[in-house]
Amino acid sequence: MSNTINVNYMTRAYNQYQQKNAAKDQEKEDTRFADSVREKSEASGSIVGNSKIGSVSAKDMTMVEYKQYIYNKISQIPMHPTRAGESISVTISEAGFEAMKNDPEYEAWVLNDLQVGWSQPDKWSGICGGAFSTIYYGASKEECHAEMWSDGYNNGNGGKIFNDKSKNSFWERRIENKKRIENQVKKQQEKKRIQKKQAERTAYEEYAQNKRLSAQDARTRLVAESSSFAKTVTISQAVASYEANFTMAVSVSNKTQ
């Protein structure tokens, strides 16, 4: 009894040790991902801290041009792989756009805020079957706020709540698009599978038909050959019968003489 308890205790302790190591490894991997994103961004200046397009300053852009510029910036921000099942919307008020356009530091802060947030893991998204988040930016940092919830939130109305809260949002990334693409890929794969099966069936039917024709040809040749042989035997018999009759007739004639 005591040995069993000791073994169970050691097994449980070992499992806990393994789990801690796995958690530490995952934490290191997440940190490396976030550091890699930050290093690439700082090196290229493609996401944060660049308020120019070529030689054009953000202040010299029209608001339409500036919004497109910000939209492209947000779209370039990488996300942690664990956020693959997350639907996200970003809303920026008109006052927020004005503040960002006129203040490069505030613009950099907004983009960096998104970058830091999205580079972090979202372990609950996969467990909960997906997640939703809305992020709002106003004219100052104090006006910034965000919300996040699962698909099962409020009796399974998580998706409906997201649709309501993300109306008129500036930037969206909906997981439904990914699902729709996956469904299209599955349909194409199923279509190819059906076409392949039909092609195989057609090839088999052609093969069977050719085999039947070959068998029929063989039978036809066999019948023809048999008929020819029968005719040959009949003629031979007739010749033999004629010769026998002729011999008999000659013999009778000789006896008469």
Question: Which residues sit in consecutive blocks of at least 5 with pLDDT less than 50?
Answer: 1-15, 40-46
Would you count the extended β strands for me?
6
What sequence of helices (H) and strands (E) makes up the elements?
Answer: HEEHEHHHEEHHEH
Shape: rod-shaped
The rounded distance between the terminal residues' Cα atoms is: 133 Å
Mean pLDDT: 74
Strand order of the largest sheet: 5-4-3-6
Keywords: Coiled coil
What does this structure look like?
- The protein is an alpha+beta fold and about 260 residues long.
- About 70% of the residues lie in helices and about 10% in strands.
- The protein has a domain at about 1-175.
- The strands form 2 sheets. Strands 5-4-3-6 form a 4-stranded mixed sheet, sandwiched between helices.
- β4 and β5 form a beta hairpin.
- α3 (about 95-100) packs across α4.
- The longest helix is centred in the C-terminal third of the chain and has 82 residues, at about 175-255.
- It is rod-shaped, with a radius of gyration of 43 Å.
- It starts with a helix and ends with a helix.
- Residues about 1-15 and about 40-45 have low confidence and may be disordered.
